[in-house]
Amino acid sequence: MSATHFSGPVVSGTLTTGQTNGPNQGFSRLEQFATIVQSGGALVQSATIYVPVGSRISNFSIDVLTAFNSATSATLSIGTSAGGTQYASGVDVKAATGRIAITFTAAQLAAMAGLTTAGAAAPTVAPVVISITSVGAPSAGVVAVTTSYVQQ
């Protein structure tokens, strides 16, 4: 698979501030992927991605390809460390397969935008850690997570 490498944000558009009908410049949305495959009955499994510091996270797509079959629960969270909930929490990956809709809190949306809930700057930090915590050792489960962000 080939890829193109840039060392900074990609800006597209032709007009800057002060020009007629400007500005129309915007940043490109980028994505990184992580897959957690249940292995060995571990109660906590994590995957780590590194979003460039200061990026604005726009969304997480959580695709449950095989539901975790743990005894009572399997909960996905996304934060800055294993089990962290800065970006997402309480996502059930045991109940069903398919794409899971996430409900974000105001604090999580602010953290994703690189702000505090009061609007002060609080740049996003690396890494972004996706964790699944099971109650009861699972023997099956596959979850693919897409992290969408804009490098500013």
Assembly level: single chain
As a percent range, the share of helical residues equals under 10%
Total E-strand runs: 10
Gross geometry: elongated
- Overall pLDDT: 92
Low-pLDDT stretches are none
- Report the β-strand fraction as a percent range: 35-45%
The neighbouring-strand order within the major sheet is 3-10-5-8
**Number of DSSP helical runs:** 1
The CATH architecture comes to Sandwich
Reported for the largest beta sheet, the result is: 4 strands, antiparallel
What structural category arises from helix and sheet content?
A: mainly beta
When the domains are counted, the total is 1
Order of helices and strands: EEEEEEEEHEE
CATH topology: Jelly Rolls
Q: Class in CATH?
A: Mainly Beta
* N- to C-terminal distance: 26 Å
Radius of gyration, CA atoms, in whole angstroms: 18 Å
Topology readout:
Blueprint: E1 11-12, E2 26-27, E3 29-37, E4 44-49, E5 56-66, E6 73-79, E7 88-92, E8 98-100, H1 106-113, E9 128-135, E10 142-150
Antiparallel strand pairs: 1-2, 3-10, 4-9, 5-8, 5-10, 6-7, 6-9
Structure report:
This protein has 152 residues and is mainly beta. 5% of the residues lie in helices and 41% in strands. The chain has one domain (29-150): Jelly Rolls, CATH 2.60.120. The strands form three sheets. The chain has a four-stranded antiparallel beta sheet with strand order 3-10-5-8, covered by helices on one side. A four-stranded antiparallel beta sheet has the order 4-9-6-7, with no helix packed on it. It has a two-stranded antiparallel ribbon with strand order 1-2. A hairpin with an 8-residue loop joins strand 6 and strand 7. The longest helix is centred in the last third of the chain and has 8 residues, at 106-113.
